[in-house]
Each structure stands twice: as C-alpha cells, then as structure tokens.
C-alpha cells in the first residue's frame, strides 16, 4: 500500500468520492492508503482532498467529505467530476446502519453517479459484532441499487490496513474499466 509510482504522468487524474457517515473511518482509510501509517483522526469538518498515486494507473484524487448530518447535503455538490464512489460503512454501528443505507441510496440517485463504479468498505471488521460483507451487501440492497454498474463490498479494518490493499486493487481495476468505457463513448460521440 502507500504511495505507488505512476508510470504515465500524462494520464488524466481520476476523481473518487469517499463518503459515509461520520465515525465510519473514511479519513483513516484515506491516510492509511496514502501514507501506509497509522493516523488518529476525528470526524472531518468540511473535506480532505488527497492524491494517491497507483501503479500502472492514473493518479487518483480522493475527496473525503465529512459525514455529519449537516454535511451530507453537500455530497451531491462533488458528484459531477466523480469517476468512482467509495462508501465506508461502520460495520459495528447497528444503531445507524439504517441512516447509512438511506444516505447510500440517496447518493446513488445523483445523475452524475449513474454509471460510476462503487466500492463499499465494510470497515471495523476487527471489532466484535461487526457485520460481514454479505450482511452489508444484503442490508444495503447492493445487488438491486448497483445492478447497472461495477460494484464490490470489501471487508476491512482501516486501523490495521487489513483489506485495504484488496480494496485499492479492486477500485483501480474498476476505474480503469470505467475510464475506457467513458473514453470510448466520448470518441464515438465526436464522430
């Protein structure tokens, strides 16, 4: 994990939204991927923007937007340029899972996210009582809501980094495929 080299500097960056409720672990995921170090974070007020370079792919600009209730309406303001969505779920917070499901469904209804790939991180798998990836998939109705796009639910622990390398690889694969499809459609529209 950590910062990987980008071999082709002329490739356009891709933009990824990193969303989820407050305390889900979004910023911890972001900084673990970027620096491969442990970070102590608090819920983000506003947003964090970081660029992560990946091997054999374009740099990824990640928009980590605060998940407090007052911040969630601003999520849609960042959708227009998004090439992908990473949605982080606190797999232990059963009290707020319905809220998280509702926000997930709402953000997927944004017209700018219509075909973008979705990666759900079922975070905090190290904690007792954490729901597994299958539980999250079922509760979030991912098969139904994401049937027309690439999607995956990855169990992880942002604190230890477990599952994040797999999540990064899956996201990179999705982004490459999405970019190729989008570029092909744009090419044919020009003709």
From TrEMBL:
CDD domains: ARLTS1
Binding site for Mg(2+): 27, 44
UniProt keyword annotation of Nucleotide-binding present: yes
Binding site for GTP: 20-27, 67, 123-126
Keyword Signal: no
Keywords carried by this UniProt record: GTP-binding, Magnesium, Metal-binding, Nucleotide-binding
Record-level GO BP terms: establishment of cell polarity
Top-level taxon in the UniProt lineage: Eukaryota
Pfam families, per the entry: Arf
GO MF entries: GTP binding; GTPase activity; metal ion binding
Ranges annotated as spanning the membrane: none
SMART domains: ARF, SAR
Function: GTPase that recruits MYO1E to MHC class II-containing vesicles via the effector protein ARL14EP and hence controls the movement of these vesicles along the actin cytoskeleton in dendritic cells.
NCBIfam families the UniProt entry points to: small_GTP (TIGR00231)
Family that this chain belongs to: Belongs to the small GTPase superfamily. Arf family.
Subunit record text: Interacts with ARL14EP.
Name assigned to this protein: ADP-ribosylation factor-like protein 14
Gene from which the chain derives: Arl14
